[in-house]
Amino acid sequence: MASTAAGKQRIPKVAKVKNKAPAEVQITAEQLLREAKERELELLPPPPKQKITDKEELNDYKLKKRKGFEDNIRKNRTVISNWIKYAQWEESLQEVQRARSIYERALDVDHRNITLWLKYAEMEMKTRQVNHARNIWDRAITILPRANQFWYKYTYMEEMLGNVAGCRQVFERWMEWEPEEQAWHSYINFELRYKEVDKARSIYETNSLVMVHPEVKNWIKYAHFEEKHGYIALGRKVFERAVEFFGEEQISEGLYVAFARFEEKQKEFERVRVIYKYALDRIPKQKAQELFKNYTVFEKKFGDRRGIEDVIVSKRRFQYEEEVRASPHNYDAWFDYLRLVESDADPDTVREVYERAIANTPPIPEKRHWRRYIYLWINYALYEELEVKDAERTRQVYKACLELIPHKKFTFAKIWLLYGQFEIRQKNLQNARRGLGTAIGKCPKNKLFKGYIELELQLREFDRCRKLYEKYLEFTPENCSTWIKFAELETILGDSERARAIYELAIGQPRLDMPEVLWKSYIDFEIEQEEYEKTRGLYKRLLQRTQHVKVWISFAQFELTIESSNRLQRCRQVYEEANKSMQNCEEKEERLMLLESWRDFEEEFGSDANQNRVQKLLPEKVKKRRKVTAEDGSDAGWEEYYDYIFPEDAANQPNLKLLAMAKMWKKQQQKEEEPEDEEEESLPQGKQSSPQDSSDEEETKTAAPQDLDRDDDDESSSSDSESDEDDREKTEEKEAGSEKD
């Protein structure tokens, strides 16, 4: 029953948390641990003080404390702090023998504990047990000879006791172990405190501090030691030994700087200069920054202008060396370096730098990579020729450069021409011609031909010039400037027939780079020869090939400049032919240019009738609009432009004037309220606007090209093809109605 009752007993349900949102103030695990720790560390009241009144209580107290210390030691013998506390407590009770016993027991446990030895020795020294202290120090330095604290304490104790000999003996024992540098300096300072300079020197020499610790700073300290005590010669000897000891493999700029400063203090300026130059020649440049700086300061203090310049040049040379070492193909750095070396160096040094520079051939056989490099060779050759004046070596430089260049891929005409000019300066014309001929045969270029021809012209070898021009034209027959120069040469030589034949061959070429220049030169040639009929023939032949407006204008100006009775008539006839031939020209601006030139001619030489005639030929300037299409084909809006309507265009399209009048009539009809009166006024206007019976005033308006600018409204645009057709249909209907009336 009980079990049944227990089984029926209801288990209370755990209340569900309805609000599962995080609390506003969060408590971290760190805060919980901190609070727990703070509650554990609450201050407890100190135990009451005991007052010992008799010896028995004191013995009980000692027994209790000793039992506690012994218990702690028994629990963990390796905790040295328990031993030290025990010994110090015994020491405080003046129980030195007990404290000594405790220290000995502790040393049996851990004899390599430095703190234990120090506390033990300090206790003996406090109690003035000197022999015991010495015994402890001897044991300590025997067991732990590398613990410098024992040696320092031991020597300090002996020195405080006035036992100088014993202290020196300890130092000697210490030095046998070759300790760190500070130990040696402590020994030296000890000897100097008692004025034992020779013994201090023996530490540097005999005991050999500089051999045990062969560092530059120790050698410098040794030299300063000798200098400080007035032994200048010995100090200099120390520096010299140091330089020999380190040699050139492990050379240090600090040693040379100290050596130079030492000599500077002794006023040995020449020695200082020699030391600096010796060091700069042997120390790598990247490690000689401080050396350069000190050398510069020294020269500014004690040197002359030449010395200061030498320092600056050396420093800049070092910088350039660093640059060319970092990037050997940086030719600009090589140029700067060579410029510096050439200004102040012997030829052998300059040649060495040039050889190093030209050895850095561009890795890619492309001309753009060789453009800067080739100037190294040019400067090298010019230096040998102009500065050293060694012609044979200059020739070798040019030949080596020409052999190096890959002429099958590209060449440099400058090198060939400079070589030829050099040979001419050496009065070796045969070599110059041979070199330039080889250049033309291997890699013909325009610059090579021009330079060779110019050379032969200066030598007045005209037959060679003709041959060279022939070769040149075989190489580039489309080069108009070559044809012109060839013809000019023949003209200068007085052979006009050869010049004319050259021009005829030139204009007969199927392909020319600048034909307009060639034709102009040919025409100018005939004008100079006063062959006016041939000039007219040339103009006509040229106009058969091109109808350019400038050709017509030039033709007309030519006719005008000829001194003859009918020159004005010929000029006017040229203008008329030009206007007739350009009526179907699509470029209306060119025709306008022609008519303006004709108008200027008539204003200067023509009659009023001729002027009016030309004025009527001028077009009307009209502003139009057209659609603009973007690159993707979408509509980009409208743009305005100017168009020119010539009189014959207006005659071919008679509805243009009616279209203009219709627009005016439409505007007036919208403004006024009586459309009937407006129609009566507009119909006679339509009659007066026929293209055959137009008045002189309307002709003047139509002929004015600058002042008749008409702006189209947004509603109607004469440039839009659809709106033009609608307006034309309306005007035709109105014209038909007016004819019926």
Detailed description of the structure:
The chain has 741 residues and is mainly α. It has a domain at 622-660. Helix content is 71%, strand content 3%. It has 40 helices and two strands. The chain has a two-stranded antiparallel ribbon with strand order 1-2. The longest helix is centred in the middle third of the chain and has 22 residues, at 305-326. The protein is elongated, with a radius of gyration of 57 Å. The termini are far apart. 24% of the residues are buried. Residues 1-7 and 677-741 have low confidence and may be disordered.
Give me the secondary-structure topology:
Elements: H1 2-8, H2 29-40, H3 55-75, H4 80-92, H5 96-109, H6 114-126, H7 130-143, H8 148-160, H9 164-175, H10 181-193, H11 197-205, H12 209-212, H13 216-228, H14 232-246, H15 253-265, H16 269-282, H17 289-302, H18 305-326, H19 331-343, H20 347-358, H21 367-370, H22 373-388, H23 391-404, H24 413-425, H25 429-442, H26 446-458, H27 462-475, H28 480-492, H29 496-507, H30 515-528, H31 532-545, H32 549-561, H33 567-581, H34 588-605, H35 608-617, E1 620-629, E2 635-645, H36 647-652, H37 655-671, H38 675-688, H39 696-703, H40 721-740
Helix pairs in contact: 3-4, 4-5, 5-6, 6-7, 7-8, 8-9, 9-10, 10-11, 13-14, 13-15, 14-15, 15-16, 16-17, 17-18, 18-19, 19-20, 20-22, 22-23, 23-24, 24-25, 24-26, 26-27, 28-29, 28-30, 29-30, 30-31, 32-33, 32-34, 33-34, 34-35, 37-38, 37-40, 38-40
